[in-house]
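Hi Prof. W.,

I finally got the 7-carboxy-7-deazaguanine synthase prediction working! I wasn't sure whether to trim anything, so I left the full sequence exactly as given:
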Amino acid sequence: MKLRITEIFYSLQGESRTIGLPTVFIRLTGCPLRCQYCDTTYAFKGGELVELTAIMEKVASYNPHYVCVTGGEPLAQPNCIMLLKQLCDAGYQVSLETSGALDISATDTRVSRVVDLKTPDSQEVARNLYENINYLTKNDQIKFVICSRDDYDWAKTKLIQYDLSNRVDEIIFSPSFQQVKPQQLADWIIADNLPVRFQLQLHKILWNDEPGH
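And this is what came out:
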């Protein structure tokens, strides 16, 4: 069994509820979406086919507690489901970063699924698979990348419409890099007293978004 891999590296988690924790990242190649703010376009193509056993050996070489499967869109590769299961079976704390455009129902529920809801200004809002919300648990997280005030207002309506704060462990609002001022988003959240976590992407602050971090 093989998966197409762009990179495997060890760094600090830059977002989500495990932000700041040393984490192995497995970046799978390929994505059917084209969000206008995408910061990993280098993962759209190329990569290398790697045996699942070799991936597990590479991960183990770092002796990590946390492993994040990301992309691209990891679920675009069907073998991702088995990768997630084997990582959980090996005893790692596993998270999956997914666009929310593909079905998450087959993923191991031991995995903390970090599911995007694409906002209108991402230019991929039509790709949201809202049926995924039915499969979310308190082990999961939802992320909104906010590009504008309109995006913020849209995200607020989704919080209410889907009762998201009672479905998942964390709801994350992040400002789209260089598109909305972080302080502005923070002020909106405070003014509305939203039950969400404001978050900046730590890896962009520390390493200026260089690949491999």
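The chain has a mean pLDDT of 95. Does that look reasonable to you?

Thanks,
D.
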